[in-house]
Design brief:
With 220 residues, this protein is an all-alpha fold.
Length: 220
Amino acid sequence: MSEKAFGINGFTLKCIAMICMLIDHTGAVLFPQYLELRMVGRLAFPIYCFLLVEGAMHTTDIRKYERRLFLFALISEVPFDLAFYGGTSWVHQNVFFTLFFGVLAIDLAQRIKNKLSVIIIFFLIIIAAELLHTDYSGAGIVFILCYYLLYEKKILKQLMFVLENYFLYQGGVQLYASFAALPMLLYNGKKGPSMKYLFYVFYPGHLLILYLIVRFKILY
């Protein structure tokens, strides 16, 4: 019998992120008066960024990974708009667009060897996220790129993440995202059970359910 690796695997991390995201969105849509729910929810995005980079570094076809993220970004946009705006809106785009841009940046960085060109590409993708108002916008891309650039530095990249949160979100609820460094430091490098589409389906699915709860006043 093989000895189990100490720590938590990628599947467990993803489950933690999903639960935190559900708590966050439930708070935002149904119980905005309870700021504590949003605090818990801050842990979700950094964990997803961390796992995104893990996926990008281990995938055998990063272009397929990009297409899948972009497809679900399109699928999720209507449920996202319904849950947070009650109808179609161009004000704010869902997190799948941010994740897509992050993987695109990693893909281009791996293909282009010229460092100046890579820096320019990173800068342009950050601007694109800002202009499109994707979830977490340019700051989200910065988080993803830091995880990528410090991929081999387990402790350093978590320290960098905590510092980024401090300087980018001084005094805001986003500071609670720093606590996500704790479960990520426990990551043992193992993938865990393969449920590739669990998050992809869960994201638009739970947003649609939250919208229906509000639309039909199920809890009121």
